[in-house]
Specification:
Layout (H helix, E strand, L loop, with lengths): L1 H23 L4 H12 L5 H7 L6 H23 L1
Helix pairs in contact: 1-4, 2-4
């Protein structure tokens, strides 16, 4: 199971890098909303998909990974609001 949490962490880091690059290229409000939907959307958001995958982890790993993903979500939300 340690591999699962490592994979999840790698995906989270890659997602953060992808978000940062996309945010830097965003020019207007509509593009910003599209970016929010792409990463935080309930049905098809990339981060939402990672959060849904937490159920496959053991309880202790789920707690740690959940904290990391929630921190990433908060950071993305702060960046979008700024």
């Amino acid at each position: 199971m340690a591999e699962a949490i490592d994979t999840l962490r790698q995906k989270a880091r890659a997602l953060r890098a992808e978000f940062d690059a996309a945010l830097a290229a965003t020019a207007d409000g509509a593009a910003l909303q599209a970016l929010r939907d792409r990463f935080l959307g309930r049905k098809s958001g990339a981060l939402s998909a990672l959060l849904k995958s937490l159920g496959r982890l053991a309880e202790a790993e789920r707690r740690d990974a959940g904290q990391e993903l929630n921190a990433l979500k908060a950071a993305i939300e702060r960046s979008l609001d700024a």
